[in-house]
Structure to design on (328 residues):
């Protein structure tokens, strides 16, 4: 794919400011999409959500992260790559002190019906000094390799409280080789548990009421979700500084490790950076070229660190050797 094609893929940011994906507001949901040649809307007439985030993600070998110093080693490598790619690195005094700790669990049917149809449901809780803090966050997402398919799925929840919509375009290395990329589109909604008053959150009848697209997957009213592979994930996340690609395009970056809670089995590491678009103008050509150059160059520079072939969520679903129909 030529640079121009890659750039066009990165930059489908046609959303107006009034449709900002970060805006929090109580809204009704559960509508199916209606499309035409001239208009793309959900059934209630609301226009499709538009991509307003670009996220680069590179999975890393978990055995590399045996100490905080190893996190810093990867961070230093990324800084060197940025410098060699003519990208400024903005230091953050509040970043890089010690990892944030978050607990993550995934919910699904015993036959992984959600995941095999492109849906992911998870709960994330942050910990400080060993104790949970803040409001645990529910994330419901639909992922697809085509942006229009991802956009057409209305992810708005039927809750009385507030929620956020985040529509992301993600770039990852191809499954079989370093120095490459592939695209995945993630259409998310997220909200704090306090924003909904549902009592039995793992009952399928509850979930189909809150997330109407799941109705097509329900087999019975008595059906319940369970924690995927009984796996409780502990995430260690070290926030780094920001990458300045020029012309106002600045990406936050981080490095993380996922491991199972209890036995501390390391699953996978990840380096990621994310840009949010705050205007409808296209990203400048020079900034797009720098994004591509950095993403490809970092893969080559970090060759000995990289793990290919899946996503973090995919690894959790394969914890017990399960065969999955869906390959991301």
């Amino acid at each position: 794919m030529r640079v121009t094609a890659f750039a066009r893929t990165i930059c489908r940011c046609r959303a107006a400011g009034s449709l900002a994906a970060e805006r929090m507001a109580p809204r009704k949901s559960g509508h199916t999409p209606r499309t035409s040649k001239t208009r793309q809307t959900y059934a209630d007439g609301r226009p499709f959500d538009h991509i307003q985030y670009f996220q680069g993600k590179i999975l890393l070998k978990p055995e590399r992260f045996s100490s905080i110093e190893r996190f810093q080693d990867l961070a230093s490598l990324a800084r060197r790559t940025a410098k060699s790619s003519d990208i400024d690195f903005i230091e953050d005094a509040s970043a890089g002190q010690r990892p944030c700790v978050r607990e993550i669990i995934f919910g699904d049917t015993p036959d992984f019906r959600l995941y095999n149809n492109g849906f992911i449901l998870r709960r994330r809780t942050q910990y400080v000094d060993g104790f949970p803090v803040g409001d645990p966050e529910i994330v419901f997402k639909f992922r697809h390799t085509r942006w229009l398919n991802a956009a057409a799925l209305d992810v708005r929840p039927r809750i009385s409280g507030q929620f956020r919509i985040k529509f992301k375009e993600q770039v990852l290395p191809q499954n079989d080789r370093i120095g490459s990329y592939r695209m995945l589109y993630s259409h998310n909604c997220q909200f704090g548990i306090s924003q909904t008053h549902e009592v039995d959150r793992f009952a399928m009848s509850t979930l189909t009421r809150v997330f109407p697209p799941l109705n097509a997957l329900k087999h019975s009213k008595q059906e319940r979700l369970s924690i995927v592979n009984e796996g409780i994930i502990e995430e260690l996340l070290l926030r780094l500084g920001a990458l300045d690609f020029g012309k106002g395009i600045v990406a936050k970056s981080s490095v993380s490790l996922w491991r199972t809670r209890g036995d501390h089995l390391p699953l996978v590491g990840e380096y990621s950076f994310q840009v949010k678009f705050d205007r409808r103008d296209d990203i400048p050509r020079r900034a797009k070229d720098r994004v591509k150059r950095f993403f490809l160059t970092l893969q080559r520079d970090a060759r000995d660190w990289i793990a290919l072939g899946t996503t973090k969520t995919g690894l959790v679903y394969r914890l017990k050797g399960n065969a999955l129909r869906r390959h991301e």
